[in-house]
Amino acid sequence: MPEGNGIHRWAARHEAAFAGKPVRMDGPQGRFTDSDVFDGRKLERVLAVGKHLGYDFGKDRILHVHLGLQGDFTEGSGPLPAVRGALRMRMWSAAKVKQPAVPGASKRHGWYSSDDGTGHLDPEQVAWVELRGPTDCSVYTNEKWQQLTERLGPDPLNQDDPERGFAKVRKSKKAIGQLLMEQDVFAGIGNIYRAELLFRARQSPFTAGKDVSDAVLRKMWKDAGPLMQAGMVDRRIVTTLAKDRPRRGGGVIAAEDAHYVYRRNGLPCRICGTKVMKMEGFAGRNLFWCPVCQAEENKA
DNA sequence: GAGGAATGAGAAA
DNA sequence: TTCTCCTTCCTCA
């Protein structure tokens, strides 16, 4: 379900948990049949570009994961839980045992264990992740991964040079609210950040790309990096400034205070009080904006 | 228990 | 522009 910030977060967490060691992997319900390619091999690093994850096992083998709209990970420590729900793939840390976990098993598959009850393992060291509902979970070569990254636009979370993306916006007749959703313009931005970045720049979603001022473009780009980096609070995206949120008790940011316009249609704009608007199917998704703060005449 | 919506994107028409 | 993939969670009855 996440936008780019959530993807980079998973990459960092999974790299910290698994990289540098052999990992176990399977697709216990037959939804992922290539787990053998990776099972028992050492994970070298976890790549993140836009909304794409790449678990790099070296030797020209990368596990590509794209969560899409419905995909999500669950993670935990302790013993691997029983299979439940619709599980695509799971990955867990492997502890090396002195004897094959399964007598007669091949070295690659049999000499690592996490929950086989052999007693060779400290349960506190076990970490696991489960993946369900992804758009893609498949084997990539280095070349295929490179083709993917070349197709994507600059990613605000990867310190990329934004000029390539700016150039595409400047020559496009499409609305900026549509361009922000296109991953070959900017990678990693999704429907929440589209709405919130446009609002924070007081930019109308309907202005053609070629008519958006450079100042606003740069402002949105400069905003996007830190905003996406700080983006997750309790697995939620928060984009409101503290001064624009109502004061409530405790340090927790309430879900209804997290956004300026996203899913706030019918509610008053936090800045001007005008009712926030919603339009269905704008670049295939629901668009939210304030018709006053983001009026087309506001463009610099 | 049904039905819809959700932080996505590729293919089809 | 419309369909289709796919899973979970929430609302409503």
From TrEMBL:
Pfam families: H2TH, zf-FPG_IleRS
Native source organism of the sequence: Granulicella cerasi
Catalytic activity of the protein: 2'-deoxyribonucleotide-(2'-deoxyribose 5'-phosphate)-2'-deoxyribonucleotide-DNA = a 3'-end 2'-deoxyribonucleotide-(2,3-dehydro-2,3-deoxyribose 5'-phosphate)-DNA + a 5'-end 5'-phospho-2'-deoxyribonucleoside-DNA + H(+)
Keywords of this entry: DNA damage, DNA repair, DNA-binding, Glycosidase, Hydrolase, Lyase, Metal-binding, Multifunctional enzyme, Zinc, Zinc-finger
Cofactor: Zn(2+)
Protein name, as recorded: DNA-(apurinic or apyrimidinic site) lyase
SMART domains in the cross-refs: Fapy_DNA_glyco (SM00898), H2TH (SM01232)
Ranges where the FPG-type domain occurs: 260-295
Family recorded in the similarity comment: Belongs to the FPG family.
Xref: Gene3D superfamilies: 1.10.8.50, MutM-like, N-terminal (3.20.190.10)
Stored SUPFAM superfamilies: Glucocorticoid receptor-like (DNA-binding domain), N-terminal domain of MutM-like DNA repair proteins, S13-like H2TH domain
Known EC number: 4.2.99.18
Keyword Repeat in record: no
Superkingdom per UniProt: Bacteria
Entries under InterPro entries matching the protein: DNA_glyclase_Znf_dom_DNA_BS, FPG_cat, FPG_N, H2TH_FPG, Ribosomal_uS13-like_H2TH, Znf_DNA_glyclase/AP_lyase, Znf_FPG/IleRS
